[in-house]
Amino acid sequence: MKKIEAIIQPSRFDSVKDALREIGVEGMTVIEVRGHGRQKGHTETYRGREYTVDLLPKVKLEMVLPDRLAESVVETILKTAKTGKIGDGKIFISTVNEAIRIRNDERGEGAL
Amino acid sequence: MTERSRLLPVLTAECEERRNRIRSAFQSDGKAGETLRALCALADATALRVLEGFLPPGPASSGLCLLALGGYGRGVLFPFSDLDLLFVFANADAEARLRPAISDFSRTLWDLGFRVSSAGRTIEECKRIEEDNAEFHLALLDRRFLAGDQEFFQRLNEHVLPASENRAREFLFMQLKSLTQERHARYGDTIFHLEPNVKEAPGGLRDLHAATWVEQVVRLRNGGGNRESTPGEASGTAEEFLSAVRCFLHYRNGRNDNALSYELQAVAAERSLGWAEGEAAPREAADWMRVYFRHARTLNRRLLDSLEEHDNTRLSLGKRIAALATRGRSLILARAGRLEITSEFPLRTREDAFSLLNEAARRGMPLGREAERSVGIAWKAGVSGNGAKTWQQFREILGAPYPAVALRSMHRLGLLADILPEFRSIDSLVIRDFYHRYTVDEHTLRTIEHLQELAQPRDERGAHFTDLWKSVERRELLILALLLHDVGKGMPDPNHVTGSLEALDAAAARLHLEPDEKEETGFLIGHHLDMSATLLRRDIFDPETITAFGNTVATPERLGRLCLLTYADIHAVNPEALTPWKAEMLWQLLAATSNHLSRSVDRDRLHAVREAAFLDEVLRCSGGTTRAEIEAFLEGFPRRYLAVHTAAEIATHFALAKKLTAGSVQTELKPARHTYTLTLLAQDRPRLFATIAGVLAGWGMNIIKADAFANAAGVVLDTFQFGDLHRTLELNPSESERLRLSFAEIISGKAPLEPLLKSRLHAAQERAPKVAVPTRIRFDDDSSSRCTLLEILTQDRPGLLHEIGSVLAQLGCNIEVALIDTEGQKAIDVFYLTQNGAKLSPELQHRIATEFWGRI
What we know:
The structure holds two protein chains of two kinds.
Chain A: E1 2-8, H1 13-22, E2 29-35, E3 42-46, E4 49-53, E5 56-65, H2 67-81, E6 89-95
Antiparallel strand pairs in A: 1-5, 1-6, 2-5, 3-4
Chain B: H1 3-29, H2 32-54, E1 64-68, H3 70-73, E2 82-89, H4 92-111, E3 115-122, H5 123-126, H6 134-140, E4 144-148, H7 150-186, H8 205-221, H9 233-253, H10 262-270, H11 285-309, H12 317-320, E5 322-327, E6 330-335, E7 338-341, H13 350-363, H14 369-381, H15 387-398, H16 403-413, H17 415-419, H18 440-452, H19 460-463, H20 466-471, H21 475-484, H22 496-511, H23 515-526, H24 530-537, H25 543-553, H26 556-571, H27 580-599, H28 612-622, H29 627-634, H30 639-644, H31 647-659, E8 665-671, E9 676-683, H32 688-698, E10 701-710, E11 715-724, H33 728-731, H34 734-747, H35 754-765, E12 776-780, E13 788-795, H36 800-810, E14 814-823, E15 826-834, H37 842-855
Parallel strand pairs in B: 2-3
Antiparallel strand pairs in B: 1-2, 1-4, 5-6, 6-7, 8-9, 9-11, 10-11, 10-14, 12-13, 13-15, 14-15
């Protein structure tokens, strides 16, 4: 099993979610996050108030999948979340040793 | 063979058989009352037989009596409710002797499927008030004798318990009040949940029980007994309906689960649950839920009225009753945080009703029960005024700092739907999705409550929007837009925005809204989803997104209103919908768009020939002129000029421009509700802006906003919105003409400005500012291709704008565009400047800054 964490632009979230649903991925955890990588912040003023936009809003998707689905999910996210600009986000893939459904103790891929 | 093993097989079969019969009867006729009484009778009979098995009547059970409490005490028992029992012992010895048998009794009832919740007290203990267990005392108010020593019970019931209850009556009342507040708060203080808990939520059966307890406690206060509370007819129907629903839920869920889920709402509606046979019942879940909410509202109201009516909270005299104001014949009082009126001066007319509601909206103080009732009576008795008059009065409420306080009362009394019949379409309307927590009318009122809370935001989410709410212009139109923004959800058109706009058409015609009021409200309704769609589905850090969104809203005033509407609309969907993350994104979109609007004014100039539709409209308003003349007048104005003025206003400006001759000045002075608007046209000349600002300051006028634009022909059009602090113009109508004359003479150089300014500013400078605002000066050479932008933020004070304009004129700067705004004590000014047709040099910028630092 693989865990995929994707940090994407909020504006791409609906498209990514729809594209993932089309390839059969229904379940995911969505977290509203703030952060920055190379897309550095900047200082702005609004009616005389100065503020720094250093942590930009992003959406983080987390999903654990059977190995066979991982590659197509990554491709789908890459294709749908890409705008070609700095700040499009990142995808992290890691291996998951075990999954357990709390309700009935079911283990492995069946618990996903 | 033990008694237990003898009783269990026989009673298990009997209980099962009787329970099945009761259940079948409920499923066929849906009559809750009979079901609950039958279940209670089954519990009574079973309890008695089991008790006799372990404690036969006679010496063995002397010194004991068994009472039923709570709902079971009232003679009703839901299928999976607890069986609340109390064993009362004559003394501690009796308790020790009888405990083992009672334990067997309870276990056996458990095994027979009864959820026994039993307690034991000696008679001495019954004399004490358990301050940490108010629920027990309240349940005891509904006591019923089941078994045991009759004489013992009589002593308990007629002497011991009444004495302790009498001592505890104030404690019980206060506990009831706080328990109710805590319970209601757990459910967001609203009955309108999309999946309500029919027992515990506001409007649930617990409200009815609590209201009955309040009435019992009050009878104790008044020296009467604690029994026999009779519900009113509406409460009785509501009780029967909600009881049927709770019974149905218990049977469907197989446990004491009182949550009315979506799925079960559909099943209940399909079965016409709560309706007598032959009645035309709604089969759609949403319609059925509307009926549910109406009944819930009845029960909730009964409890709240009861609590308020009998609340004897002891306040000092000064705090308890304070005369606030007189309105017409009525004297308005504040009593325990609510508005009341005296019976000597009742409300008589709709004007009186509006006055009291307006007072509530102004002070943020809800109406007391009697005051609300009086408003309802005065409204019904009063003659309905014409639409324009109604709007005039309603607008006052909508524009007040706490409109929702009055709107809540108006909704409860049906007044809101009288003024806006369109609102009826969303009364108790359920939106069956998993996102919206509340019914549409509740969502709508909550949006307005979230806005008024911005005056003192409860958490970080609102902090950015506080100033915006305090300074928002035309607040009444924002609130009207919120009242109507979702009424389309109760209409047949699948696009609710279309329905809501149709509702506005009808409301605007009936209430005689001014065309610009309707247009502004229509804009907010028509675009009420745009800002949230932009922040969630577009990249708000992309300048193109900001430009496109900026073009949609066109003016900072509209942007502010749309932003507040969006904040409130997201916030009122459910308590978690507006995350700090979304609030931050919304604020950043506001800031970026606001900056875009103030920094891009000269990018987009009008070329009148491209504005065919708008030109037609101006032409229609002008009359007797040619299209070419209007085209020539409009050519070269920033596009923002069209955004901030209506076609009729532009036609007026055009008429003024036609009268303009070399050296002359044309002015128009229009009073608004609390301010005046001065429009002034003149051929461009040095120091023009500074002089106009100086004349206004010299007359003691407080400039709130100003725009200065110029067209390609060099005609300057300045608009100043100002407040008349000393009411000079209002109290002396002839002064308006003198002010206009003053402009003409001073601008044309026939009279000096200085003497006028000197005396006025000298007096004003002695007053210290209420809030210190630090000065910020910023130059921006990037936003405009032709001009340097100067942004000044500083402490507002009389004569400030004249002083800034004078410095700029003195240093040879030409003001191409000026955008002047104030926010409380803060002046926020943006100038588009050139010198000899080019941007300002860095040296000149430095000189301007140095000059300003020296003066402001």
